[in-house]
Amino acid sequence: MRNHRNSSTMCPSFFRWIHHDLEPWAQSRISQAQMMEAQGLAAFRVLISEGRLYVDFYYACTQTRAMFTIWGLLQLLKRYPGMIPDLDIMFDCMDRPTVNRSRYKWRRPPPLFRYCTTEWDFDIPFPDWSFWGWPETNIQPWDDEFRRIDSTSRAQTWTNKSANAYWRGNPSVGSPVRVDLLQCNDTKLWGAEIFIQNWMKEAQVGFKQLSLTDQCKYRYKIYAEGYAWSVSLKYILSCGSLPLIISPIYQDFFSRGLVPGENYWPISSSNLCQSIKFAVDWSNANPSKAEVMGREAQNLMRNISMEWVSDYMYHLILEYSKLQNFKPTRPSSAQELCEESVLCYASERERAFLENSRASPAASPPCTLPPPDHDLIESRIQKKRKTISDVQEMENRVLTQVNKTKDLVKVYG
Question: Where, by residue number, does the polypeptide cross the bilayer (predicted)?
Answer without folding.
Answer: none
